[in-house]
Each structure stands twice: as structure tokens, then as C-alpha cells.
Amino acid sequence: MRLALLPALALAGCSAVPPPVRLSSDAVIDAAEQAPEDGFVKENGWNEPMAPFTVIGNVHYVGTKTVSAWLITDPKGHILIDGVVPQSAPQIIGNIKALGFDPRAVKYLLNSHAHIDHAGGLAGLQRATGAIMLASAADKPFLEAGDIGHGPSAGAKFPPIRVDRIVQDGDVVRVGATTLTAVMLPGHSPGCTSWTMRAKGADGVERSIFFHCSATVAGQSLDPEAYPGIVANFRQSLARAKTLKADIFLANHENFFDLHEKRARQLAGDANAFVDPGELGRFTATMTEAYAKTLAEQQAAH
User: Fold this and answer.
1) Number of structural domains the chain divides into
2) At what angle do helices 230-241 and 279-300 cross, to 10 degrees?
3) Which domain holds residue 284?
């Protein structure tokens, strides 16, 4: 099924209809954004700043040094994927402005998956942009609770974010001439959502782009299952990923796609530093091997 979602302005309808109520108050968001960096955030450098830049065409990196956030721009409005940790929302807003774009022009917020290092800043970004939040049905309860409730980040709470619309596999988000298509690859989270789109580079060549939601086990229990169906989800998603192609592979953490090495090449003059049609396949092969090894080790331990 493919569902075209109209631009946010067209969804507004009658001006007399009040805006939806946010799940997190200003006080909750402010406290989270101003909280000391500790635990996972400090240990992994999730909120370390990085200068924003354009990857290709209308696709821009606005995340931190270690965790991705993506701004896809269009004259009719923008789309923002992921919010990093709660403390990162002000930095992401600043990065958007530094690139010359208005945060209030962001029409849609998307989420790769509902772990704190990708969903933590979403409530603050929703407040700052007024954007419509889109997410999978399986991850919606975690986003609206502000806690995924299982795995290594269980108990790492973040400001709850209101999910305005559910996206399913093959659904389309469209703003102006920009189109993103959802690809559900559950496993890392029950509703792990990847996205595909196309964009033209400086050389005028149109490239296919894949924003990967994640394929790592990340310390989660496969035996017993951290959540019902996690083993089947990983198996099916990894098999599906083997059939996917992309000219540009963009991941949710810098180490999964050599962000800094590619950025250095780009700064040195390589306009196509992020173009590598074989990278998605290599990443999938590596993740498949890692998943199989982890499953075997956990099964052998029982």
C-alpha cells in the first residue's frame, strides 16, 4: 500500500480547530534538554557537536558527531528524521538555522526507531517546529511513553512525543517535489523504519538514497526474546535488506557509514564522497553475520 501524505499546511483544515496537545510540557522538555550528560549520553558522546553540511542535493546532516539527524529540504517545506538525545534538540535547531533554513518550515518529523539516542529530542523538536510526527504503529507506544521498556536503553526515559500519524511499509511522505518512502525493517526495534528517496548531486546525476533505521542487535536478548517476535523480525528484515539497492547509504550512527572519513573526502573536493552503491549490501552482510553469531551464542548459553 502507498499512502501519499499531503503537506502539513494542507492538513491544517479549518483555522478554528485547535492544535493537538503535546504530551510533554515545556517544563519536562526544558528539564530534559538541560539535564547533565551522563550514562549512555556521556559515555558514547551522543551529544558532541558537529557542524551541519549538505550530503547531496536537498539532503543535509544536522546531527551530532556520533548520532545522525537528517534534514530533507524543499521549497514547500522540510522533513526531519530523528532527534538524537533530549539535550540535542537545541543543537539540531541551531544546525538547521546554520544551513540557512527555518525550523518552522519543517512539516514532518520522522523517527528511525524509539531508542533514546534517536527519539530523545523529538518532543523538543516538535515544540520548536510545530511539525507533524509520523511513526510506525509498533514504535508509537514507546514514543508516547518516552521509554522503550526493553533492551539496553530500557529505563532511559525521554520526553514523550505525540505521534500524529501512523506510517506503514510503502507509505509515502510528500512535501512539494520531495518524496520519501517507508521501508519497515523491524528487529532493532519492533517498528524500525527506514526511508528511501532520490536526489540530484552537483554533477546533475540522480542518486537513490537509503536512510537505514538500524540492524544491530545492540545487546538485546534474542534468547529469551527481548520482545515477542524479535528473532523472526531480524531474520525477515535482514533477508529483505539483501534485496535492496541504494547509491547512497546513510545510517543512524556515524561508525556504521564512515561519516567522518566521507566528510573529510567531501571537504577535500570529492562531491560524490557519499556515493557507494555497494555499501548497503556490505553493511547488510556484516549485520547478518553479527546477528547469527549473537543468536548462536545466546542459544548456547541456555
Assistant:
1) 1
2) 150
3) 4-300
